[in-house]
């Protein structure tokens, strides 16, 4: 693994921030560029194909224009009324009469030749031949270049008799037959059509020929290494920049039905596009090296990549500078902490920034000041602590002395036969012992019940009307441990305020559940009205983490004892402890303690 967590842990905070920033920026950029490159492959191919098709469509328009000019001449010869009238008249003459022409016939011949010259003035120069069945012919080229009667011997000539209406025969590229053009224009293309009279009987033929180099010149004008060819339906090459290719078969031939595709040819990939010529079965085929076809698009991607790279480099330099400036106070604070760790408490960071680091620095300096102050206070306190411990030991002598004296009095009273007084002194002794025994933070519930029983006994001796104390406690509840003097303040409230120091009953009921230790103290005293109850109600939500104080009551029911009990139990058992006070006027009061088990 190239990156180990241990190495990262050993790096300084500054380098961690720099490293994390670079990772969080560089990795998304690399991933985005990779995804972009992957997702744009098809888009680049489609764009290259689209560009190639547009270029080929433009070439097809030029080629079609040349072929349309040839077809225009054929159509004109066939449909021109004046020209057709002369040609039909000439076709009806016998071969013998053609040699002896009068002036009118000479004028007609001149008109035919003039018409041929006129219709070939538009567009590229074409060789036009009008050949009648009786051997009469008209041409716009000298017969010394080519004898028009040789057309009867051409292989394709018989096809003309099988045509109907305005159908034409397009003759593939063949060696030029015109002697004066063979050197400059080695190949020619032709279109031929039969001429019919009103009865659809063929009386002649019109043949228009154009030299192949007129088309190959269009191919040569294309930029780059694009290779274009014109082929027929059988895949035979009709026109090409390289005349050696004319007459050869295009390798894919008729199988190339897709308009565009990528093929492997001549040790590299080529983007192939083809376009059909609208009025015959010929097609234009374009070959462009695929790398060249997508070079412009790839160059844009490379420029974007370089721009991102340089932007990232500049950003990294700026980021390094900013992080260095930002973390400089933190590095200084770290050095101060190292000095403090070494025992030097006089050093201070003294960073005056207003940001979080500055506030932390000021708090740290303040903490060092407080530590120095507390060290001095501790030194001063240690001496006084020894004196206080001695005073405490001295103070404990008096309660123990009183406890021993009470026991002596109890024994003497008991010997004199005053058992009730002896019992009262015994209960008081127990309470006194529990008070001075500071070693016990918590006691069993059994001990707490015995203690409050003695307390009720003492209270009954000091008032005229007795209080009945009834307990209902499960064995498991007796075994629970609670802080000392939890029940006494509550029972004291019940006797003094609830029963108003009159006779009555106080019930103590306790049990345990799966998660609670429940204690209920209930009296049948005066009770409280709703307003007074609301002021005393303690019902703390265990999740709010807040402590609610009990308010004083005008009825005389003291909240100080309850609040003391509540605070001690919260400190012992946490916010899960809950206290409830239920009361109704004339029906007594019930205090319920819900102590969580397991603490």
TrEMBL record:
Keywords: Cell membrane, Kinase, Membrane, Phosphoprotein, Transferase, Transmembrane, Transmembrane helix. It is found in: Cell membrane. The keyword Transmembrane applies. Pfam families: dCache_1, HAMP, HATPase_c, His_kinase. It comes from the Bacteria. It is a multi-pass membrane protein. Residues 324-376 form the HAMP domain. Coiled coil: none annotated. The keyword Transferase applies. GO terms for molecular function: kinase activity. The chain crosses the membrane at residues 21-39, 304-323. InterPro entries: Bact_2-comp_sensor_kinase, dCache_1, HAMP_dom, HATPase_C_sf, HATPase_dom, Sig_transdc_His_kin_internal. PANTHER family: SENSOR HISTIDINE KINASE YPDA. This is Histidine kinase.
């Amino acid at each position: 693994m190239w990156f180990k967590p241990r190495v990262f842990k050993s790096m300084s905070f500054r380098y961690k921030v720099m490293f994390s920033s670079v990772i969080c920026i560089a990795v998304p950029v690399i991933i985005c560029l990779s995804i972009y490159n992957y997702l744009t492959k098809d888009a680049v191919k489609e764009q290259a194909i689209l560009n190639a098709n547009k270029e080929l469509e433009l070439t097809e328009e030029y080629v079609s224009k040349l072929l349309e000019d040839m077809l225009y001449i054929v159509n004109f010869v066939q449909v021109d009324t004046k020209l057709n009238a002369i040609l039909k008249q000439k076709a009806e003459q016998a071969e013998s009469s053609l040699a002896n022409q009068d002036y009118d016939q000479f004028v007609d011949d001149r008109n035919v030749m003039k018409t041929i010259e006129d219709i070939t003035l538009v567009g590229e120069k074409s060789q036009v031949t009008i050949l009648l069945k009786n051997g009469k012919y008209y041409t716009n080229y000298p017969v010394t270049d080519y004898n028009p009667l040789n057309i009867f011997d051409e292989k394709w000539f018989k096809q003309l008799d099988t045509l109907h209406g305005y159908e034409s025969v397009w003759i593939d590229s063949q060696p030029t037959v015109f002697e004066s053009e063979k050197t400059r224009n080695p190949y020619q293309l032709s279109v031929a059509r039969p001429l019919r009279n009103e009865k659809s009987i063929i009386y002649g033929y019109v043949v228009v020929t154009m030299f192949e180099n007129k088309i190959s010149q269009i191919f040569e004008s294309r930029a780059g290494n694009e290779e274009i060819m014109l082929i027929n339906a059988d895949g035979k090459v009709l026109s090409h920049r390289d005349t050696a290719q004319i007459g050869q078969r295009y390798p894919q031939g008729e199988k190339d039905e897709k308009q565009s595709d990528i093929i492997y040819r001549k040790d590299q990939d080529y983007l192939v596009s083809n376009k059909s010529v609208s009025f015959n079965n010929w097609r234009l085929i374009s070959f462009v090296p695929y790398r060249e076809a997508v070079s412009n698009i790839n160059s844009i991607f490379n420029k974007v990549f370089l721009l991102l790279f340089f932007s990232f480099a500049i950003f990294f330099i700026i980021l390094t500078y900013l992080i260095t400036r930002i973390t400089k106070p933190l590095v200084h604070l770290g050095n101060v902490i190292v000095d403090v760790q070494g025992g030097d408490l006089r050093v201070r960071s003294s960073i005056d920034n207003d940001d979080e680091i500055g506030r932390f620095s000021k708090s740290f300096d303040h903490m060092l000041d407080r530590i120095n102050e507390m060290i001095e206070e501790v030194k001063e306190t240690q001496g006084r602590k020894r004196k206080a411990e001695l005073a405490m030991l001295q103070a404990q002598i008096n309660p123990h002395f009183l406890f021993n004296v009470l026991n002596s009095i109890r024994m003497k009273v008991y010997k004199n036969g005053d058992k009730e007084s002896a019992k009262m002194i015994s209960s008081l002794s127990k309470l006194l012992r529990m008070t001075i025994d500071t070693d016990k933070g918590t006691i069993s519930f059994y001990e707490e019940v015995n203690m409050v029983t003695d307390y009720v006994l003492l209270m009954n001796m000091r008032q005229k009307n007795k209080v009945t104390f009834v307990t209902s406690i499960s064995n498991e509840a007796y075994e629970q441990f609670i802080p000392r003097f939890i029940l006494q303040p509550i029972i004291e409230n019940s006797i003094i305020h609830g029963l108003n120091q009159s006779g009555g009953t106080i019930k103590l009921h306790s049990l345990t559940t799966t998660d609670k230790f429940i204690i209920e103290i209930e009296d049948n005293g005066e009770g409280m009205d709703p307003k007074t109850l609301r002021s005393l109600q303690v019902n703390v939500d265990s999740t709010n983490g807040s402590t609610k104080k009990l308010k004083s009551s005008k009825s005389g029911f003291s909240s100080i004892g309850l609040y003391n009990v509540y605070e001690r139990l919260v400190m012992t058992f946490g916010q899960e402890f809950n206290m409830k006070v239920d009361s109704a006027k004339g029906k007594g009061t019930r205090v319920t303690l819900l102590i969580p088990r397991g603490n």
